[in-house]
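A.,

Following up on our hallway conversation. Structure tokens first:
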């Protein structure tokens, strides 16, 4: 069990390692994890499921079992490791697990070049860079559509790649951050409402919603406090419920309101145009707003770390 002081110190250490090293460029553990998850899904969820040949219960049960294998086993190994190792090495493992779970530097490295391309008037490059991080079709998107996609991605991934990991690290140290990152990855792979994944990925989607419920609202609060708080709060309270995701809604509504830009609206996915509810308030985002979105995420992260440090100091002095 880590003390409040050790947890605070290791949080800063994990954030520092992420800032200096970013994500591994080669031999990334999540690449291997993703391949294993894909192979397991293809094995346990054959095409028979698409036709409904096994009903609902069996695919969902297999999805739960697959989730336990992919998340439960690595997390249990991490718990055993930090319990068996001597304290200095165990603390290092905690920090490295937080580094693994964090994606702050990676998010910056993906979003900032989009802003640079838009500011330079290089729309084709901006489209290509944005298409790497979103699932929507940007083939013929104009500047506003590209900037909107980038802003939305920055705000939503701020929760998934940063604040969710920090929250679960504060709650359950390294193994907690690891479990969150793996669960979030499975949701990104299995959580789609397609005929194939609707039932098999049900558990991955619902568990991720549960793990993200509190972090998403803390993220939304952080966005509000680091920008236009009144507009952020108004958008959060009036727009979030209309969004499909119970967690992305508060995060993106608050973030867009804080930035005073208008997001949401129509977007094309897999060749089909979807009419999404509006998010935020003001005008459509442009290149500078993409940079402002990342600045908002960074400020909220600093606020989180400062609040956590202050709480640790209070606990240590009482």
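Then the amino acids I'd put at each of the 318 positions:
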């Amino acid at each position: 069990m880590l003390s409040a002081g050790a947890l605070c110190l290791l949080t800063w250490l994990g954030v520092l390692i992420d800032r200096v090293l970013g994500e591994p460029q080669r031999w990334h553990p999540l690449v291997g994890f993703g391949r294993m998850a894909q192979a397991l899904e293809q094995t346990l969820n054959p095409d028979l499921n698409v036709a409904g040949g096994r009903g609902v219960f069996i695919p969902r049960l297999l999805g739960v079992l697959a989730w336990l294998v992919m998340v439960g086993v690595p997390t249990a190994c991490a718990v055993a490791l930090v319990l068996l190792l001597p304290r200095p090495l165990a603390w290092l493992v905690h920090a490295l697990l937080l580094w693994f779970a964090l994606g702050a530097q990676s998010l910056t490295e993906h979003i900032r070049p989009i802003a640079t391309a838009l500011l330079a008037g290089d729309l084709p490059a901006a489209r290509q860079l944005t298409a790497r991080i979103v699932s929507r079709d940007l083939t013929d998107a104009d500047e506003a559509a590209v900037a909107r996609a980038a802003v939305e991605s920055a705000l939503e991934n701020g929760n998934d790649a940063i604040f969710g990991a920090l929250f679960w690290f504060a709650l359950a140290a390294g193994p907690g951050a690891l479990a969150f990152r793996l669960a979030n990855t499975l949701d990104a792979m299995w959580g789609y409402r397609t005929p194939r994944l609707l039932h098999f990925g049900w558990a991955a989607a619902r568990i991720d919603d549960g793990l993200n419920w509190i972090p998403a609202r803390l993220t939304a609060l952080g966005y509000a406090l680091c920008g236009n708080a009144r507009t952020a709060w108004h958008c959060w309270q009036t727009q979030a419920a209309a969004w499909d995701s119970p967690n992305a809604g508060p995060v993106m509504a608050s973030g867009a309101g804080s930035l005073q830009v208008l997001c949401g609206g129509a977007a094309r996915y897999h060749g089909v145009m979807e009419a999404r509810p509006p998010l935020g308030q003001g005008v459509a985002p442009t290149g500078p707003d993409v940079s402002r979105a990342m600045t908002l995420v960074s400020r909220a992260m600093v606020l989180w770390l400062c609040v956590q440090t202050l709480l640790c100091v209070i606990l240590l002095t009482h």
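Residues 4-316 form one domain. Curious whether your intuition agrees with the design.

B.
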